[in-house]
């Protein structure tokens, strides 16, 4: 595989324009794509992901997300890796990005950087929720489209598609139509300003670099309620009090944000159940039951 990658990037000439490839070594950590470090003879390194050519659109979407995040990020607090090239070669596709030496960083800086990203993008938004191209959340599609009402959008483009997929393991979406109608109205009344979201913000998709900045990568972006990103940071853990303090000091959340955490995280629980199955199915059913109880919606 290393030789094929070398052939592909050498033929494209964009990565190797100023230096030849010295070696290519595998990098651990990926569960969807294979990851590689491309060592150039001038001492520079490039990060690369590979997958089958049929998954080329995953890389195109990720590149689009990273470019948008870079547009609104404050470089004094947060670094977003720069996409370099996407290549189709034989039966596989390659996504090349600038290399980051990941290290532990001040989680407060990461929280501040995320808040500034949300805030600057909200000021620039056109007040619509959504994304213009078909996206991905893990290996599942993230439906494209736009909406002017947040609740209607989140139900139609996020929860409903995942509930439909969950039919394969026993979910009957008709059993939850009353919940969806209620949450649509409830989230509409919240009326958030759209911010660009990372969209898949768990601790494995962020870190720090040697300059002491926070880093965000592996996004699944769309324009939505910034609380969605903060809710997901609480789903699988890994974020300490300094992260939330940094965020709150920079752009405080609405005091009612706590009431929406489980609604937003239901999307990610459903996605995990649809991809991985196992205990995530029980987590989805438990969450749906808790939401009925919390909002006093009778079945």
Structure description:
42% of the residues lie in helices and 21% in strands. With 299 residues, it is α+β, with helices and mostly antiparallel strands. The chain folds into two domains: 97 residues, Phosphorylase Kinase, domain 1 (2-Layer Sandwich), CATH 3.30.200; 188 residues, Aminoglycoside phosphotransferase (APH), C-terminal lobe (Aminoglycoside 3'-phosphotransferase, Chain: A, domain 2), CATH 3.90.1200. The strands form five sheets. Strands 1-2-3-6-5 form a five-stranded antiparallel beta sheet, sandwiched between helices. Helix 6 crosses helix 8. The radius of gyration is 20 Å and the shape is globular. The mean pLDDT is 94.
Q: What is the count of β-strands?
A: 14
List SSEs in N-to-C order.
HEEEHEEEHEEEEHHEEEEHHHH
- Count of separate structural domains: 2
Distance between the termini: 54 Å
**CATH homologous group name of the largest domain:** Aminoglycoside phosphotransferase (APH), C-terminal lobe
CATH topology of the largest domain: Aminoglycoside 3'-phosphotransferase, Chain: A, domain 2
For the record, the CATH class of the largest domain is: Alpha Beta
Largest sheet strand order? 1-2-3-6-5
How many DSSP helices? 9
CATH architecture of the largest domain: Alpha-Beta Complex
Q: What's the main sheet like?
A: 5 strands, antiparallel
């Amino acid at each position: 595989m290393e030789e094929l990658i070398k052939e592909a990037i050498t033929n494209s000439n964009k990565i190797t324009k100023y230096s030849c490839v010295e070696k290519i070594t595998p990098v651990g950590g990926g569960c969807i794509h294979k990851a590689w470090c491309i060592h150039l003879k001038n001492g520079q390194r490039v990060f690369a992901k590979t997958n089958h050519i049929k998954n080329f659109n995953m890389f195109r979407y990720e590149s689009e997300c990273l470019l948008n995040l870079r547009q609104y990020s404050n470089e004094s607090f947060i670094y977003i890796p720069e996409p370099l090239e996407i290549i189709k070669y034989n039966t596989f596709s390659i996504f090349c990005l600038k290399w980051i030496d990941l290290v532990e960083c001040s989680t407060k800086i990461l929280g501040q950087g995320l808040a500034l990203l949300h805030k600057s993008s909200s000021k620039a938004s056109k007040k619509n929720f959504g994304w213009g191209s078909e996206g991905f959340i893990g290996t599942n599609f993230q439906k494209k489209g736009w909406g002017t009402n947040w609740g209607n959008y989140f139900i139609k483009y996020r929860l409903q598609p995942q509930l439909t997929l969950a039919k394969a393991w026993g979910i009957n979406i008709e059993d939850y139509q009353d919940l969806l109608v209620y949450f649509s109205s409830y989230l509409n009344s919240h009326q958030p300003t759209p911010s660009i979201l990372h969209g898949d913000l768990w601790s494995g998709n962020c870190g720090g670099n040697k300059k002491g900045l926070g880093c965000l990568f592996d996004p699944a972006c769309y324009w939505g309620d910034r609380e969605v990103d903060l809710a997901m940071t609480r789903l699988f853990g890994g974020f300490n009090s300094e992260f939330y303090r940094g965020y709150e000091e920079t752009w405080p959340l609405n005091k009612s944000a706590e009431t929406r955490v489980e609604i937003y995280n239901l999307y990610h629980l459903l996605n995990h159940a649809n991809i991985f199955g196992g205990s995530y199915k029980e987590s989805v059913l438990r969450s749906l039951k808790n939401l009925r109880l919390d909002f006093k919606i009778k079945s």
